Amino acid sequence: MQKLTRGELVRKAEELLDNGEVKHVLGWRAGEFDYDLTPSVFDTKDDIEANFRFDDFCGPNFSKYLVKKTRELEGKILVFLKPCDTYSFNELLTEHRFDREKVYVVGIECSGMADIFKIKEIAGEGISKIEPDGEYLSVASLYDDEPVKIKASDVLEERCINCKSKKHVVYDELLGEEGEEQDSGRFEEVEKLEKMTSEERFGFWKKELSRCIRCNACRDVCPACTCEKCVFDNPDSGTQNKSPATTFEEQNFHIIRAYHVAGRCTDCGECSRVCPQRIPLHLLNRKFIKDIDSFYGDYQAGQEAGQRNPLIDYTQNDIDPSEIFGGAK
Amino acid sequence: MIYSCEISHLDDLFKEISSFEKLYLPVDENESLSSRYEVYSEGKKMSDRLNTVRSPKDFFFPQTENLMAFKTEGKKIDIIDVRQENEDFAVFGVRACDARAFKVLDNVFLKDVPDSYYADRRAHGTIISLACSRPVETCFCHTFDIDPTEPDGDVKSWKTEEKLYLEPVTEKGNKFIEKLLSVSDILKEEGTETPADVAKQKEQTKKIIKKLPLYSLSKEKFGAGKTEEYFNSPEWDKLSESCLGCGTCTFVCPTCQCYDIKDFKTNNGVIRYRCWDSCMYSDFTMMAAGQPRHHQKERFRQRFMHKLVYYPTDYDGLFSCVGCGRCLQKCPIHMNIAKVMKTLTPVSDGGDK
């Protein structure tokens, strides 16, 4: 469960609204259940008191919302960013997607977010209440009198199990403790895929991507996908834009997306979080990240605002294609 | 007449069904911690999960289908009917919400100008519904007067600890049972009275429904002719503020029925296909002058007004939400029809115009 409390976030939001530093607060709005929070703008203390939430279900990364919200809203916006979200924030600044002056960033300590579908696997379907209880989540069901105690660390989202950093790379103010970059096992799954034969690997992806329903949620949530008009929404692009009309088309969409965000993807993991079919899309992006690291030296997108990613930054020491693919220099 | 088979013989029953027609069965899908429909083959086990991610709508109105092909030779154009499916099939384990969804789809695809593609599949497909015994927190079919213990369908079924009970209710359902009886060693006549264990299960399920978090969710303020009550509600702004404009809700919905038609060129002609479309998409109903709904708010409003007002207006008050709860589970930002219904205030009840 989170070390930082809802109360600390609420007090900070109210203080900044009171002293006029910000006009709006971007936060997580309470839902019907204990796990279905919605990203939302809060303008008043009453609304914050009644509906603002902070707990293990605050997965959504707000960075991308700033592109729209800074244009729509008058006055400064307070945004709460978890460490991983701050990388997306910097990357969007690098791409000049919003005005930094219109945002007040409060970095928040994060202990990892819970995956509701993993909770349901353990507690069963039909959840009536989820309450934090020390290192556990107490999960009550419509069917059992006694709540089930689940260790929060057993139901973490994949991206949190493999958390890359507990350090905020940008903030105006920090709540809770600052952490460190993590030695995570996030490339282990990629290594497993690399060890497969190309037939096995193609089989793996064919199977995973065959579940795609082409809802575009991965694209629409992705902080690196902020084109005003996506090529896949362009009827003249020649792609069958709303449906996996052929298996080629369905694979094509994901491969093109992965290529388009290569070098800019911070590995925030939103694509896999929102996929209704739980396709491990982050693995495509991680393969690119791993390759960039090995070809150009360790590089983390979003580490600093304004940095140039190796794929768009030519240096004379750049790796020669022959070193990767063989052949003449 | 109600028929039954012992639970221990369930696999044999599926085998018997698949001996005379293709049987689709919900099976566990571990990769996605959910379930999906698959063609039955020996060894496949029916999933105990409540609902598949993709609804049984897909069998009758698939996400993509080729409608026809055109072949040109000089000035001659041949129009080719590309339909190949003409075999009977059965879909087992359709829950009450999804079973009711066919009433919604039939109104659109079978009335006025029938859609022959959908009609073909409806004629060939038998729906074997399965009563719910373990509704979950996202369920609200009761809001739309659906009784999950008495589902629609060609054949209704109930699964208790001991037995699976089957009751044919339509002509197609009766024919299906006749075919099954002609090959079955295990299906027995049970009588016309509700079996005791089914009655007990129904009672338990109804108790759970009263405990559901959405038990009090009401449709009464919505329905036919209520467009003016909600169209300009200021609440749409807040409700739609973080909608990503993705198509998840639409594509997991058992009643969404919008589609787009396109042609694509092949080496020796053109194939015309259709695919699901989503009113949440920026290019939905794109015309020469652009898309009529300029902002996500208007697209969002369209989806919910269609479910709660426009559809009931067109089809005798029938709502086109069946309370299956898929969108509640799958929306990336957890905004959904239950929240919309709770939030909107009609103008006549003090809501702003």
Overall description:
The complex is a heterodimer of chains A (329) and B (353). Chain A has 329 residues and is of the alpha/beta class. Chain A has 3 domains: 6-114 and 162-175, no CATH class; 116-155, no CATH class; 188-320, no CATH class. Helices cover 36% and strands 13% of the residues of chain A. Chain A is built from 13 helices and 9 strands. In chain A, the strands form 2 sheets. In chain A, strands 1, 2, 3, 4, 5 and 9 form a 6-stranded mixed beta sheet that branches. In chain A, strands 6-7-8 form a 3-stranded antiparallel beta sheet, with helices on one face. In chain A, helix 4 links the parallel strand 4 and strand 5 (103-108). The N and C termini of chain A lie far apart (54 Å). The mean pLDDT of chain A is 93. Chain B is an alpha+beta fold and 353 residues long. Chain B folds into 2 domains: 2-63 and 85-211, no CATH class; 227-259 and 279-343, no CATH class. Helices cover 31% and strands 22% of the residues of chain B. Chain B has 11 helices and 12 strands. Chain B has helices at residues 10-20, 96-110, 116-124, 171-183, 196-211, 227-230, 235-240, 248-252, 296-314, 326-330, 337-343, and strands at residues 2-6, 22-29, 34-39, 64-73, 76-81, 89-94, 125-130, 155-159, 163-168, 188-191, 259-266, 269-276. In chain B, the strands form 2 sheets. In chain B, strands 3-2-6-7-8-9-1-10 form an 8-stranded mixed beta sheet. A 4-stranded antiparallel beta sheet of chain B has the order 5-4-12-11, with no helix packed on it. In chain B, a hairpin with a 2-residue loop joins strand 4 (64-73) and strand 5 (76-81). Chain B is globular, with a radius of gyration of 22 Å. The termini of chain B are far apart. The model of chain B has no long low-confidence stretch (mean pLDDT 94). Chains A and B meet through strand 2, helix 5 and helix 9 of A and helix 8, strand 11, strand 12 and helix 11 of B.
